[in-house]
Each structure stands twice: as structure tokens, then as C-alpha cells.
Amino acid sequence: MTDDTTLVILGASGDLTSRLLLPALGQLLIREPARRVRLLGAAIEDGDDDRWRDVVRTAFATVGAESAYDRVAATTYRRADITDPDDLRSLLMDAGDRPILYFAVPPAVTTRACDALAGIHVPAGTVLALEKPFGSDEASARALNRVLTGIVPEEQVFRIDHFLGRSTTLNLLGARFANRVLEPVWSADHVESVVIRYDETLGLEGRAGYYDRAGALVDMLQSHLLQVMAVLAMEPPSTLGERDMRDARCAVLRATRVWHDDPVAGSRRARYAAGTVQGTAVPDYVDEPGVDPARQTETLAEMTCEIRTARWAGVPFTLRSGKAIGARHTEIVVRFKPVRHLPTGFTGSADGSVLRFTLGPDEMSLELNINGPGDPLHLDRAALTARLGEGQLLAYGEVLSGILDGDAALAVRGDAAEESWRIVQPVLDAWRRGDVPLDEYPAGSGGPAAWPEL
Ligand SMILES: NC(=O)C1=CN([C@@H]2O[C@H](COP(=O)(O)OP(=O)(O)OC[C@H]3O[C@@H](n4cnc5c(N)ncnc54)[C@H](OP(=O)(O)O)[C@@H]3O)[C@@H](O)[C@H]2O)C=CC1
Ligand SMILES: O=C1O[C@H](COP(=O)(O)O)[C@@H](O)[C@H](O)[C@H]1O
């Protein structure tokens, strides 16, 4: 990586930029002292270099990376409407050779900006990094892919999914592929069910402009949780290189359908009502600023899928994510089948073992049936727990590192983005038709009382 690479952050005044991208860049520059980057920020609002430099310094400081600022070779700001070809042209002139255009802007703006880019000259080696959601359905994702590959080759398109850079997801690879003990039981022969759950205490956080159109299904399941499922379920790749990893993940998605092809039985949705989350009052979702009640947006989504391969057919993979839940509950749970025959004479129950990966703090635990204290033939439950390495970088740091190095292993390939939409489309359609009721739960609860525990 040399000084002549410019990271152009489109959406310099946005939440993602200040809260996640810049802190991650600061961390990355601290971890890799030889790395240099030029930073060009752009947004619609009038601004100047000094104000932008303050934004960068403040963001670096949030992760204790103040000293990384000296490694940024230049930091400049340009006012630009990136849907305007003239503004884009002058931005590209400022960016120089082989720029990285990071679209930290709303998805509809990204689409319009890419349409504009397709009509102008883009320097060879330009990299495009696009935030999720990628398109708004399968057809629009396909159309956007066509536009992108008309601008730069697929290897230069980074569709971002920061869950692929999360240490838990990376730890899954180590646990699965560096332990011979797991591979023989990693299939429908031994696994009964898988749950991937990301319940947050956070509510809307002022993001109605985006979230009210997306909802939990698109915001979390269609993107992040399907990618985590792909890592959990993929065939062992030959290498951790870009092609092997992306082929393996995409093969899982290609084989995935909603459970029994029945989106009504295979999904549930709900929305939070007024309540209290960890001592703080949260309004009814429809009373949050900017929400349109007519949209019937869900804040809790659940979908069960089947991966139709010899390894996984018949195993339900349930993905769930909710906002304003009483306690953070973020984990991957692999539940094994009980033993085929429990020798007569034991007392107590012998439920299947459970392998659990907790996301942040990262832990892995294996629950087993053991002979407990007292009666030696009475079965008790015990857990072997290991704290996993948190990684030196935030998830966005791993993602940025890949982009700056031109390694797309942690980015979503175009065909995988389309497959993810294909998987959720029947559910979206069923919800739009009103075939699945929109249930309610008080903010701060664990979800609708009537929903059976996963
Ligand atoms: N925020 C988050 O936690 C996460 C966000 N994302 C994704 O990141 C993207 C950005 O989200 P977020 O930062 O929250 O959004 P914000 O609304 O906070 O920021 C949007 C940014 O886009 C700029 N912008 C809008 N239109 C244009 C335009 N025509 N030309 C130039 N700049 C423009 C805005 O500039 P101005 O202020 O000048 O109008 C602003 O800087 C979305 O795709 C979102 O899904 C992904 C993961 C997490
Ligand atoms: O992309 C998103 O992710 C966050 C959850 O991820 P985290 O790493 O910030 O915990 C989610 O809150 C947000 O709604 C979604 O857009």
C-alpha cells in the first residue's frame, strides 16, 4: 500500500463514517505502522478541510488511535452531490490514480451514483466499496451488479458485510477447520438444529430514514445473518483465499430455501411497543420520529431456512434478529441430536450436546451430559467454555484492511448478494400480502410472549 492510494469516503458527514469507518481506519493504521493512506471526504453539505480533519481526529480518538492521524498522508474534504456526473468527475480528478470509492451513503444514493459513474471515465484500478443493503430486491441487486461490472471488474467491487469481519465469524473458521473432532459431526447426521440470533437492546436510534424502509429482515437477516450461516455451513475450502472462500459461501446460499418452501410457516415478525430497555424509556416504534405507521415495518424478524445439500438437508437453520430487546442475546447455537441409545440405568436427561458461539464478548462453549456429583449414574449438564480471541481490529478494520489490500475474501460477491435476496423474497412477499401477522412486544421484553422460545 503506497501513498498514492486515496480512500474516498462518500458520505463523510454520516453516522457510519464517524462511528465505525474512521475508528476502524485509525485502529488499522496503528496496527500496521507502515501503512499510509490519503483520505478524501465528500458529502453534500458545505464543509472544509479543517472541519473534516476534526471529524477524522475525533473518530480516531474514540479508539485511542489519535497518533494514527500522522499516518494519513493528506486529509481533504470536497462538497459533492455524487449523483451528479460533473461532481463525480471533479472528485475523481482530486482522488488521483486507483482511488477507492467507499459509498457510505443511503442505498438509493449509491444506486444513482453508480448509474452516474457508468457514464463517465473511471481511472483503471478504481475500487468500489458498497454498503448494505445491496439493492432492494433480487431484480434491483441484479441490475446494480450489471451496472457495477460495466464500471470495474468484479474483483474490484467490495460489497461490504461487516459481520464477515467480526472476530466471532472468523473464529468459526478456526473452530471448524482446524479441529478434526468437529468435521465428522458437522452435518444432518448429527446436528438437529442451528439458531443464529442477534437480539439487540438498541432501538431505532434516529435511523428511521433508512430502517423504516428496510425492517429487521432486510437490515439483519438478508445480509449479515445469511452470511454468518454461509460460513457456518460451508464446505471446507482449500484455502482462505478470496476465490475459495467466496465459492464456498455462495454454494451454501445457492442451496438455501425457506423451510419447506413455506414462507408463512417459516417466518415470524413483530414490532416493539412502548417499554423500558435497561432503565431507559423507549417509545412505541410508530411514535419514533420519521416512522410511517402505514409501512408496517417489523423490528423483530425470524426466518427458518433449509440448506438443500447432502450435508444439511433436513436441518432447520433459524435466523432471528430484534431491536429494543430487554437483554442483548447474540449467539450461534448448534444443537446436536441426542445419542441413538442411552444405556438403561442412567437417570436424568440426556439432551443433545450444544455448541454455542457468543458474539461479543466472543466465547465458545460446549454443553455436554456428564456424570455429576452424588449418584454416579445420574446425568448432569456441564459446559466447557473458552474465551475466544477478540482480534486486534474492529469488524470494519478487517473489512477496510481487505479493501486496501485488494483482498475480497471478506466481501460479498455479486452472485451471493443476488442469492440472499432470492432466499428472503418469498418471505418479503408473504409479509407484504399480510399473510404473516405483525405481532407486538413491549420494548425491553424478550419478544412477543406468545412466541415459543427458540
Ligand atoms: N450507521 C450504521 O450503523 C450503519 C450503516 N450502514 C450503511 O451505511 C450507509 C450509510 O449509513 P449512515 O451513515 O447511517 O447514513 P447517514 O444518513 O448518517 O449518512 C449519509 C451520508 O450520505 C451523504 N449523502 C447523501 N446523499 C448524498 C449525495 N447525493 N451525495 C453525496 N453525499 C450524500 C450525507 O451527506 P449530507 O450529510 O451532506 O447530506 C451523509 O454524509 C447505509 O447504506 C447504511 O445501510 C451499514 C452498517 C451500519
Ligand atoms: O448493520 C447493522 O448492524 C448493526 C449490528 O451490528 P453491530 O456490529 O453494530 O453490533 C445493527 O444494529 C444495525 O441495525 C444494522 O444496520
UniProtKB/TrEMBL annotation:
Q: Which GO terms describe its biological process?
A: glucose metabolic process; pentose-phosphate shunt, oxidative branch
- Listed GO molecular functions? glucose-6-phosphate dehydrogenase activity; NADP binding
Q: Which InterPro entries match?
A: G6P_DH, G6P_DH_C, G6P_DH_NAD-bd, NAD(P)-bd_dom_sf
Q: Which Pfam families match?
A: G6PD_C (PF02781), G6PD_N (PF00479)
What is the uppermost EC class here?
Answer: oxidoreductase
Residue stretches making up the Glucose-6-phosphate dehydrogenase NAD-binding domain: 8-171
Q: In which pathway does it act?
A: Carbohydrate degradation; pentose phosphate pathway; D-ribulose 5-phosphate from D-glucose 6-phosphate (oxidative stage): step 1/3
Q: Which UniProt keywords apply?
A: Carbohydrate metabolism, Glucose metabolism, NADP, Oxidoreductase
* NADP as UniProt keyword: yes
Signal peptide residues are none
Keyword Membrane applies: no
A GO CC term?
Answer: cytosol
Q: According to the lineage, what is the superkingdom?
A: Bacteria
SUPFAM superfamilies with a match to the protein in the record: Glyceraldehyde-3-phosphate dehydrogenase-like, C-terminal domain, NAD(P)-binding Rossmann-fold domains
Q: Ranges for the Glucose-6-phosphate dehydrogenase C-terminal domain?
A: 175-451
Q: What is its EC number?
A: 1.1.1.363, 1.1.1.49
Q: What is this protein called?
A: Glucose-6-phosphate 1-dehydrogenase
Q: Which organism is it from?
A: Microbacterium invictum
